[in-house]
C-alpha cells in the first residue's frame, strides 16, 4: 500500500508567492491524506488527453523549475546587502529573500529536486518572484482592489480548520516563524493579488472552439488513449514481515477462494465477502478501467494477459495474493475531440493565464522603477 500526502496547508499558503509567477492563479486546496492499494488505478476514467500535451507541458509550479541556466555568477547570502531590491521605492529585504529561498529549497528537497536550489541564479530567480508579486500587489492597490479583514480572517479560519487542533496550528506557525497576525496580513496581500489578476487580467481571456480544435488536430499523436482493461480482483493480504507459516495460511485461503471462483461462484460476491482491499471490496472488487503502468508489474502483466471474463491463477505482489478477473478490453485509440475538448480548453486557458500574467508583470516593470542590488 502506498500513501500519498500533500503539502501541509500552512506551508502551501506561505509558498503561494513562489508559485504564483509561473503558475498563474494557485488555488489553496485542503491538505489531504489518501491510501490506495497499488492494484487500484489513480484515475481510471481520465482520457488520454489528461496526460498528453495539455498535462505534459503545463508550466512548473516553482519559479526556478523551467528557467534557463543563468550566465551570471552566483550570489552568496553573506555578500548580499540588507536591501536586495527596490520596487517603486518599496524595499525588499535580504531577510525576506532568504526566508522565501529557504522555504523553496525545502519544497524542492521534498520533491527530489534539491539540485535546482544550487543553481547559480537561484536567489535571483526567487527575487524575481518577489518583485513580480510586489508589482502586482502595488497595481492591485492602485486599482482599488482590496481584501477586507473579514475575508482574510475567513481564509485563515479555513486554514486553521485543516489542523487537528489549535496547538498543531500554532506549532506550524512557529515552525514557519510566523504569528497569526502575520499570517492574516500575508493572506490579505496574496488574496488581493489573486483578486487583481482575476478581475483585471483574466476576465478577457477566452478559448474558442476553433482554437481547441486546432490544438487537437496538431497534437493527434498525443491524444491517444492506450490499451485498457476493466478488471476486478480479490486480495488476500500478506504482511511483508509475515512468518512462513502465516504466508502459507494466506496462500491456502487465496487458493480456496480461487477454486470457488473457477467453479463458477459469483466473483463479485466472493470479493465483497473475502477481499482485503478496502478500496474495492465494497464494489465487488471492481477496479474499473486502467492502462499499462498503473498497477504494480505482476498485477499489470496478469490482467493484460487475460481475455474477457477469464480468471487468473494466484498473482503474488508485495501486497499479498490477488485473484484477477478481466471483464473487458479496449484497444489503443484516439480520444474523440468532444471528449478531449474540456481538458484542452483548460490547458489553453492555463497557458493564456501564464502569458497574460507575465505580460502584465513585464508591463508594470517597464512602467515602474525596479532596482536590484544582487
List keywords for this structure.
alpha+beta; 374 residues; 48% helix; 15% strand; 13 helices; elongated; three-stranded antiparallel sheet
Overall description:
There is one protein chain. With 374 residues, the protein is α+β, with helices and mostly antiparallel strands. 48% of the residues lie in helices and 15% in strands. The protein contains 13 helices and twelve strands. Strands 6, 7, 8, 9 and 10 form a five-stranded antiparallel sheet that branches. Strands 4-3-12 form a three-stranded antiparallel sheet. Strand 9 and strand 10 form a beta hairpin.
Summarize the structure.
This protein has 374 residues and is α+β, with helices and mostly antiparallel strands.
The quaternary organization reads as: single chain
Strand content: 5-15%
Could you name the ranges where pLDDT drops below 50 across 5 or more consecutive residues?
Answer: 1-71
Rg from alpha-carbon coordinates: 26 Å
Distance between the termini: 48 Å
Q: SSE string, helix = H, strand = E?
A: EHHEHEEHHHHHHEEHHEHEEEEHE
What gross morphology would you assign?
elongated
The number of distinct β-strands equals 12
Quote the average pLDDT. 81
Helix content: 40-55%
Secondary-structure class: alpha+beta
